[in-house]
Every structure is written in C-alpha cells, then in structure tokens.
Amino acid sequence: CAVRPPAPEVSDDSVRLADWTPPAAPDAWQLNGRTSLQLGEQGATAALTWRQDQAAYRIDLRGALGAGSLRITGDADGVTVRTADGGRYRAESPRELVRAVTGYDLPVGFLRYWVTGQPVPWLEGRVTLDPAGRPGMIRQGGWRVSYEAFESVDGFPLPGRVAVTRAETSVRMVVRHWSPGG
Amino acid sequence: EPDTPTPLDRLAAYFESVETLEGEFRQTTRDEAGTVVEEAAGSFVMARPQRFIWDYDKPWEQLIVADGEQLWVHDVALEQVVVRPLDDALGVGAAQLLSGDFANLKDNFDLSVTDDGRIRMRPTDPAWNFQRVHLTLDHGVPAIIEVQDGMGQRVSVELLAIERNPDVDFERFEFEPPEGVDVMQGA
C-alpha cells in the first residue's frame, strides 16, 4: 500500500514527545532496502544498505543497474562521502556534505533515529501513536516522519516503511531486512 | 586460411545481425573487497534502436524501460517512477549497450580486447570515464557484461536463455506509470 501523504489531522491526537517513552531500539543495526530521494519534481531511487553502530555509520546507495553509487561513512567527528567516479569528500556535518555532493538537503543526522522509529533525542516534537503504541507519525524539526508495517525483530519493533518529508524534500525507505546488532 | 573473426568483428556482426534479443539475466553486485552485496535476477527484451525492458523480480520488483527517447525506472516497492532522457543515462550499463548501434557504441567507448578475449570498453565521455566495462560474447551475442565504477564496485550481468531476433512488438516498450505512483524527473 502506498505511504500516502498524511491526511490533515482533524483532531490532533498526537502527544508531546516529552510525554512518550519510545520502545527500546537496538544501538547497532543493519538494514537492507530501497530508498528514494525527492526534491520537488526531481528524484532518484536506489538500493540502500545502512550499517549503524552507536554514532558510527556506513550508508551505501546504488542506482539503477549499479550506476550512480554513493557511500556515506561517518562517526561523531565527521563524515566522508565517496562517489561512483572515485571522488572522496570529507566534512564535519553530514548534512552539509550530502547537500554539497548530491544537492539534497537530507537530515542525515536525524534519519539515524527516525529510521528505527525513535525521535531525535535533542529535538522537541510530537508523536501520533497507533493502537499498539508504536509511532504512526513523528513530527520534529519541521519534518514529518510517517511509519508503516512495523515488525518485531529480535524483540525490537522496527518499521518496514518510513517516509520523511518537509516542504519539497522527501525521503522514502522500504526495508526488506533488519538485522539488529549489525 | 581465412582469418578468424576477432572479438571486435564478432561485436560488429552482433550489431548488424541482431535486431531484437530476449532472455533472462542474473546481476551480481560486488563491493571493492569482492563481497557480494546484491544478487538480482529477472528478464529482458531488447529491440533496436534504443528500446529495452529490464524487468527485475529479485530481490526487488523493479522495471526499467527504454522507449527510444526516455528511460523509465519504476520502483514497485517505493511506488515511484523516475524518468530521464535516454541519452543522458549512458551509465545505465548493460542495458544501454545492448540496444544501440555499433557506430554509436564506438563513439561512446574506446574498444580494445583483453588477453582472455573479452572486449574492454572505456567510456569516452569524461563524465562516465571512471567506468570500466568488459563484455564477453558467446555464440555471437553478449553473454556477460561487467561494469566497474570508480569506487571499485563491480556489477556483473549474465544473460541467459537468449533468443535471437524474436518477433517483438514495439508497443511493449511504451511505459505508462501506473495509477497512484509518483513520477519524478531523474536528477
């Protein structure tokens, strides 16, 4: 089923994030899936492999027929982006670097939390919960993060579909395989 | 004694004698350490000029259609389609190589032959010349197409159960985005 853009809530049944205790999430995990990045009319889709271990991460993106690959590796100190043509770019902020290299303003630092159904710890916001107490939507930093198809993996509730949108920018992820513990 | 055709002669003969091609493919992607990062499979059909369908059913449903002018990539799980002009999608590796013509291929690639008889193809366009492409012919048709990028990632496409010059209705290459799917311009 499509991740439809969230219908305008008639009654806002969301709660403040400060009043919600999210379910436990693994602090190390790997996911395999597909992702799309959209900026207004333009966009791209790619195969996605994401390994996260505490603050360290490696995100591999592969375009159609293996063209246009990109690798983002980072930790608390900084981030490196490698591109298909062998280019290598280093910076402190993943967001700045990803924007410089790809043109997409992606909240890379936030996605790490949102992709596992967690709020960004240092941001205020609101969450709408589904009957099972899992997030249907998290709103933080001007972004809307909507979830579908949660599944329990090694006891952790992890989403099968995530859509992150703000104004003209949207990132969609469909996860085929979660492996907590990385 | 008649000189045996070189691999490049056979490649030229392929472009002259094969107008359509249909079959299955297996695509293996390895990272620079040689570790397999994805195994994909599906079916393809190709017709000159510039028409092909690359239909993945494993590990993901994804349909790639070149309709002669544009390249459509329909990602079924994401319910999105990315469309871009065909000629700026040269890097679309294997599929693009199959359906062009030999003159166009020679414009886009410097061709040479490796010691083990594979055809080495280096893109002439600086935007793509980080790619190394190797083509293996078998019975006069492409059998293995391997594309390596500047990060050392290798995508190897093996063509199987190939039918040469089947009847192919050009209408098969007309792509209509399904209802409810987002269509995006390829960036």
How large is the count of helical segments of chain B?
3
Distance linking N and C termini of chain B: 54 Å
Share of residues in helices of chain A? under 10%
Strand content of chain B: over 45%
Contiguous helical run count of chain A: 2
Mean pLDDT of chain B, to the nearest integer, reads: 91
By secondary-structure content and strand pairing, the structural class of chain B works out as: mainly beta
Major sheet strand order of chain B: 7-8-9-10-11-1-2-3-4-5-6-12
Number of strands of chain B: 12
State the order of secondary-structure elements of chain B, H for helix, E for strand: HEEEEEEHHEEEEEE
Query: Hey, which two chains have the biggest interface?
Result: A-B, 34 and 37 residues
Low-confidence stretches of chain A: none
Q: What does this protein look like?
A:
The complex is a heterodimer of chains A (182) and B (187). Chain A is mainly β and 182 residues long. Chain A has helices spanning 94-102, 108-114; strands at residues 15-16, 28-39, 42-53, 56-62, 70-74, 79-83, 88-91, 125-129, 135-140, 143-148, 151-153, 156-158, 161-166, 169-180. Chain A is globular, with a radius of gyration of 16 Å. The two termini of chain A are 28 Å apart. The model of chain A has no long low-confidence stretch (mean pLDDT 90). Chain B has 187 residues and is mainly beta. Helix content of chain B is 13%, strand content 48%. In chain B, strands 7-8-9-10-11-1-2-3-4-5-6-12 form a 12-stranded mixed beta sheet. Chain B starts with 6 loop residues before the first helix and ends with a strand. The chains are: A mainly beta (182), B mainly beta (187). Chains A and B meet through β2, β3 and β14 of A and α2 and β12 of B. β3 (42-53) of chain A pairs parallel with β12 of chain B.
